């Protein structure tokens, strides 16, 4: 295929072979004319899935990505600030009483919100389950978070596997998508790779790891094993520390545990993941 200039009338696309899922990470791209793209490779072409990116839309996409980041940050800040106000309001006692009188409904609401928040990143499902600690205790709150995260992770995985890069571009900014697509997973190290990414990035782009595992072709069995183990490794200390902070107990031990955890995450990131830099 002859080379052409990357002008606004040309489209860059990557092709991922659909007939061999184990080769989904072997993608490549060309620069072709817009007319040639429309007539030859739009949609599915020769058993390959085609994802396009118009060069003329790059600034528009950048603006959209910045907007999405601001929305996520704003929602997180508002949620946290609102919860602090809620703890000091008379409504706290009302919710506490209602949760004790209707424990099954309360658990169901938390579970569903966690699932929705993990499928659609702008919602912060993790903050809601953390916020439930004063009502049901940190162990119960963690178990709900764990169950909701795994169920949502299964949904994310299959959506990523089915829709590929398209769904990533719809939900995440360009930087997150690029990092996910750079991940190279050896078949004998899938569990280790997903586990480490989930632990290191679990507090920032958990959904990206779930969707990305399906996109890059991680086997479902290894995905589930890694997701379960990594959630326990990251989630249990997180809920334990937050509980201690809320109850103002074991603060020194919690602080030491937090510092050690941050140090370990930094060491793992620097040692294993150049792609994150």
UniProtKB/TrEMBL annotation:
The chain crosses the membrane at residues 68-86, 106-123, 135-155, 194-211, 223-242, 248-266. Keywords: Membrane, Transmembrane, Transmembrane helix. It comes from Candidatus Woesebacteria bacterium GW2011_GWA1_38_8. This is TVP38/TMEM64 family membrane protein.
